[in-house]
Fold each of these.
Amino acid sequence: MTFLTPKRLLSTRPILFFSFIMLLKSYLAWMVIFEDGFSWTTILKEIPFVLIVYCLIEWFASKRKLVYYLIANLLMTLILFAVIMYYKYYGVIVTYLALEQVNQVTAVKNSVFSLMDPYYLLIFIDIIIMAVLLFRPKKALNWKKESSRKENKRLVVALFTISIALCLFNILPNRASMNEIVKAEQMGILNYEAYMIFSNKDIDFVDPNHITQEKIDTVKKVEQPAAPQLWKMASGKNVIILQMESFQNFLVNLKIDGQEITPNINKLVNENYYFKHFYQQVGQGNTSDAEFVVNTSFYIPPRGAATMIYADKELPSLPKMLKENGYDTATFHTNVVEFWNRGELYKALGFDRYYDAKFFGTEDTVFFGSSDEQLYKKTAEELDRMSQNGKPFYSHIISMTAHHPFTIPSDKYKMTLPERYENTFVGDYIRAQNYADFALGEFIADLKERGIWDDSLVLLYGDHLGLPVYSLDKDDKELMAEIYGHEYSYTDMINIPLVVASTGITEGKVFDQLGGQVDILPTIANMLGISLDNHIHFGQDLLNQSYNVLPQRYYLPSGSFLSSKELFMSGSGFEDGKHYSLAGNGDTEQEATEDEYQRALELLNLSDSYVSQLPSWKTR
């Protein structure tokens, strides 16, 4: 009897060799993504899928078997690598649906690869070694010859059958899990990817005739006041919305070693209405999703960016509402309008005009377009022109220089960081936001000099997070803990500021009530004195409501929501979910209830149903 050494066994049995390689790669992916890391059960979750692929090769590949193994190994490696990198950037498990985002990911490749730890590249080391070996003809020929022998067909059939059974055992009981990361951990990464391809993507839509504002307000528990505060106080004023790139709330009034980071925004905050418990509600589309939510008061779609899914819809919107009330409307963004399909979105929203890279030119560019200084300079000139036509205007202005990875050119530095912040992700972020604040200060001064500021209702908010919890290394986490006075958490991560400023109306006041980007449209409508009785919306006027429920998607697991005192993050459902205090100290007495959980899910379904069944503007 001939006994094979482990080395000999692996070289003559490619199904064993490549399965062992994929197990090591799965170990790497699990250690990066899942809180509990790798365990022995991971073998039963990842290897059955691998064996199904390799059994098919053994079954059908009569020639070039080794080539097929190499191709399969490469494809599964690329999937795992994509999962790792996407998680580090977005905090979610990537699926095939992200393929429609390829152009956008290419545009932000510097952001993505700035998050790469060198050891992630170990996932490709076997491919490199094998490629080198294959360029050595003698070695390649020997390996090809040794691995070409056929495996026992009965053994392959048995292995294939058992692997199918194990995959189904991992997938079927876990389909109902709300939390996508939990679902991927329960199923196995490769099983989850396969499940997402073949799963039923149909949504059980509600009849749009049954979706009324009264129903939405009932689910949200909104009670309309008889005499709303500040009703019509800003009637006839221009409306200027400033969307600040990656601007998180902790920057407000922050000093580091005595240095004020955002003095201009601080002045704005301290002299006007400031909502400190305000939160992002964006998804895969990031900045463009913020544009969608703010201008519609709808939630983002369950899958994909709003600009891709909803851009062909006849959307009820802030621009259309203001146009009906005599406003001229325009949006300003220094990137090309094709990025994130904005051209289509702006048609759906009903803006009179948009200004993109073509308008701002190539002077003083940073990252994807002109700097914030250039944005504000040329926008102020255009707003001055618009203000001369006898009509009030609405302008939505999108800042962009403080974009991930925040490595702005040195000539944009407006502060010197303490040594401990140098060469850190957090330090780069703070320096970029300091520059964004500087440019904003110049814009405000310009608007005041032109007489526009005093005649305008101005709202400023952050579009989305800039410092993901899952992207920070040890040094960055220590810096954030120093800033916050506690461990940086999910509630801190998605917390953005909202400032409402209008000369003669607002004053220095801090509001404690919970709010999100979906609430901006109804808050503006109240201040302008525009009725929303016949305008479906999912937000609420923050100046006249004290209770709120904010459903979250994408950056947090499905089923997650914010209530008055905490963030709830779903597990498989409500019972095994996690509760995070909005105070940021991690302690909570589970203020969020299962009733709120169910109502948050109902609100998302109502929004999905309503928007998805709107007619297309392309067919009119």
Amino acid sequence: MIRFEDVSVTYDGAAEPTVRGIDFEVPEGELVLLAGPSGVGKSTVLGAVSGLVPHFTGGTLRGRVTVAGRDTRTHKPRELADVVGTVGQDPISHFVTDTVEDELAYGMESLGIAPDVMRRRVEETLDLLGLADLRDRPIATLSGGQQQRVAIGSVLTPHPSVLVLDEPTSALDPAAAEEVLAVLQRLVHDLGTTVLMAEHRLERVIQYADQVVLLPGPGAAPTVGPPAEVMAVSPVYPPVVALGRLAGWTPLPLTVRDARRKAGLLKQELDNAPGEGRGELRDKPQTTRTRERSAQPTPTGEVRALSVLRGRIQALSHIDLTITPGETIALMGRNGAGKSTLLNTLVGLIKPSSGTVHLGEATPHRTAPKDLVRKVGLVPQEPRDLLYADTVAAECAAADQDAGASPGTCRALVTELLPGVTDDTHPRDLSEGQRLALALAVVLTARPPLLLLDEPTRGLDYAAKARLVAVLRALAAEGHAIVLATHDVELAAEIAHRVVLLADGEVIADGPTADVVVSSPSFAPQVTKILAPRQWLTVTQVRAALQETGR
């Protein structure tokens, strides 16, 4: 159905091809996963299937890509639209209508499908993706994850024979991601749809893949094969594979179920781990700031009886939250639960309908921005929303000026977080992870005691996520309080001291990470599910415990 024949793509002005030697085939009715570190060209490969590369992006494509017998060099995207449905990393940029139902119908209208067929397919897609309750909602009022589901639905309704998906679960909560992946599996198995997908969160998708295409980097040919074989040599792999590698399991398990069947001996070894190595979450670190104060430090932020009404929607209801120095809190919950609304209220972008929010003596929505940046900083779900200048140097200069910091403060942070990025680089030319790091440097220039991050690992590979975790741990050790809204259960397990679980705008759980996530089937990390009932959260914990036992 899809055939790459010795394909290379070189963008205008680039010294080297972004991808080279791409040669593989995606048979009809299979789900093939593109994997690899950030920046190796996965999005470029996907764009070559839909014709966006090179007809829209520019550059030179050498070799040949055919889809259902059509050569993408001679067929523009509109001439492939009846065969290929595409969802990119930023679905909101592709929306052309105002409401959910209209967006689901738009693609079919463009193809001239009969109205009665359109109506039936819209209803089927609303049910498939759990969107029926949102059918009349303006797209602009939806959460990022809800918008992601609408974007996926809009390409499903025309019934394309090929689906091309770039990070399709990146903005989805665990339950919604499972629903979407189940739908894709049904399309592949029951309808013979061909799916080519790139995804960094391999723990979600690896079990559904028929083949994995690993793109190792510039100049190297891809590795193609069954998932277990490719994961054995891949530089990127999910926690279940990391645990299998650590324990020496052969063949490597790809699912929690398979790993649990192999985990008996490992559980016995871990039961002999000394003292604190038995999976209990680390205590909250004693930062320099908290050691200098009493046992009850002054809160960085306090939220009392907070409610927020957005239009006719009760976004938050009676929220109580205390944030202390050196603490990392993960806000979790379904798409639309109110996580981003709470962050935006903490940073003063949304005025409470009732209740109070205090950051020290400051009330966010009543504080001037030039003063608020020294109290709290938000890295939004789309980091480019903070980036307006044409170069990294200009962004840093503006950040220094806004924060009243000495010249070079922001640039020093960028050098630490983004080694090798030059002053004249345009922010739009950075990868998702690099833009996140730049936005984080901009926010940290003012050294706010409270740092807020909205879906900070969206678009990050495992190595980039590990670097982010190291930076956030260092900030917490210095006394910064960190609140992050995330669907990434593995990130919460790695870094959070507390998890606050939201549902329909209300707090339904607030406690130590292990206590909250271990009891939640949706929000438990893979290691916890494999080694239950012990409260192991991460492969890092398991490795440390095995080292203590002398293994």
Amino acid sequence: MKLWRKYILRILPVKRIVDHSRRRQTPERLPQHLVYTILCGAAVVASLWQYAQPQLTFAVLGLIPVLALLAYVPYRVIPSWWRFMIQLAVVAAAAVWLMYRLTHGIPADKALSEVLAITSLIFLMAQNARDYGYLFAISMILLAYGALLPRTVYLWCLGVAFGSMLILLYSNRLQQLSANPRLPNPRRILRRNWHILALHLGLVAGCFALIFPLFPTDPSGSKGIFAVAFNTDKSSMLPANLQQWFQSEKVKQEQGGVRIIRNGTPDTLEAGGTPMKIKGKQPDSSSQDGSGSAPPGRDLVLRVKSPLKLYHLAQLYDEYDGTRWLASAELKRGRINVRSSERSASRMVSSRYTILKWLSPKLYAPYRPVSFERNNDTAPYSLLRTTFYNSELASNNYPNLPFSYLVSSEISTELENPLSERTRRRWRERPARAHYLKLPEKKISERLKKKVEELTRNAKNDYEKALILRDYLRNNFKYQQYSRPVPEGKETVDYFVFELKEGHCEYFAASLAVMARLAGLPSRTAAGFSPGDFNTLQNVFEVYEYHAHAWTQIFVPEYGWLTMDATPPGEIRSQTTPIGIGKLRDPFGDEWRVTPPELTEHTLQTLKDMYLKQVRAEETPSKAAEIIMQVAEVQEEIRKQIKETYRKVAPKSANRASDKKKTRGEAAWEYLKQLGSRSQHYLRIGQEFLRRYYPAVVLAGAALIAAYVLLRKQLRLRRLHRQEEEAKACFEKAAAALKAGEYRESVLFGYQAIRIELTLAGVPRRRNEELLDYARMLADFREGFDRRMTTVVLAFYEAEYGTGEISRRSAVLVQRNIRAMRRGLRVPKQP
């Protein structure tokens, strides 16, 4: 050991770790340390959340506040060499993690973003002031990478980052201009420039509102130039469901395409078209056993380009056994009796469906589909099984994704006079009307029959009956995704209506169908998807897994089969994207929530326009004009009848669910009216109180005014006393600094003291006024003050902004001048 120290250590230079604890008491922490920490956290979430390895993401987010707090711990508690060892450990962990991820087939961009997030931890301890520059640069890179990953959470992180960067811009402006990170900001800088700050905040908020809707929140599906993480991962798009994020990553590249396998179960198809494993086929019955409706998955299932906002039907159920709804043999063999003269082109609507994920062999369509067409011959329609309401794949070989088809649907709304006898007698399905009125008599309770009779007793027509029953369920029962199961031996609808009183969409659909049949209305339940989210940028409906839904179809003689959804409108997920500007460009509105989608004003107007367009193309001008007038009159009559019917029905249901979906303007107007009525009520109460207690009110008001005046005077005196104490302390510090040879501090304290004295004397410096102009202005206040103040200001400039040493002569001159000015302030000014 002695030989090692004597010979080897002299040959090999060794760099020792130096403890700076005695040189600096605390780390070089900037005042904006907390803002930098928030910016770093937002950048890490923006780049790693739901894409990086989940355990690593939570570990980095947990270490950010811990390491950031070390900047507030002095070196006597945790020496600098300890912190240096922590930084080395972080760097080593980042290197090991990078090698581990690359050797396990993780895309390079994903691994590098994770390593960059780990590396940001070493700059949070503020060992040096320049570390904040590195931290800011890393945050910008992570934010830029996060913009490539379509997620909603990124948009909120971007808002936090915008705010943090604006704060740093204001607080670091002088430091950046002077290249001195330790230069303090002027006092009350934010208070003096609040209007500029508010303007900038408004500009940032406006820019963010414009940028927010432009960012995608779901993957586009394109592969790009090279394979990267965000083109091969098929994880959940929203943070509400984190289970898929925590599953093991098994991404396998094959010749036939990219197949994503999680826990051994494929959730998409290979490019070669290998069939996926479906957990059970599409059932021929619906369940109300309490297991809940379809799981709220987040994957995009299909896109629909349609001129109307309608439900997407997959399966109908027409037979009720007291526990569940089933698809009977009559329904499966059912057909529509349609004569060529009855198939009016005015009611035919074409929709383009693009399936992005196979959930079942069903092809979705608005009711009632007439034909399915395909642009290519890869899936000949001889392989399809078609019924009068849907179509499905006949074999187990699923076509490649994305799978597109065009469906033409006949909408139930009649363009003829809805009150005519010809329309009322129409029944086009082969099963008789009585088939859709069958119920298991022994299982339907008497109290349920009495309840239906009580609700529909005063209804004037079938349409009004359907609305009353639908709104009764909407307004008196609670939606619950996972509800309690129906006990053994209980009839489902009776138990739901009188005991359970909450449940998922299948409970509402089944209850409305049964109650409608008790009221003499043909009905059946339907399963599929609600309309989905309307993307105004692409003019398509985007239907996700969480849009899976069940509803009811009720036959009304005036209109045919109508979509009646008893689920509370607020629980039917449908929004207009992008967020913000989407609502302004939405042509459909929310009328479909309170009116059957086939009867909304947009639907009727669209069908009318389509009809008129075809009439103009096929008929002579005179004949076309006659038909146009007839159609317009009938459409207007339908619209008026719908509004009148709903106006009569709505008051019968308390707390209408439709009120929950008022537009913001309508809700604001209702709130203002309520506020006005409340104000008038309180005003009358106040007037009565004044009449009864007038003397006491006057005395109390006078006492409050006197107390306010005295309080303001006391606060003003206290503020003046505090400023006098501050000026006295500054004078004493200036004198002490002069004796100690600290001439720069002496000048600065002296300048601050005389400024406070002048403010107390009633001659404060005006806002943004140059100091030399302020000094010249003092000539009108006291003789000679301008010359003395000019000397003090020049010395202040030299001490505050100069880089050289301050001479003793300058400090002494400042002391003499401020003493003379203090004496002059105590002598009253001669008139």
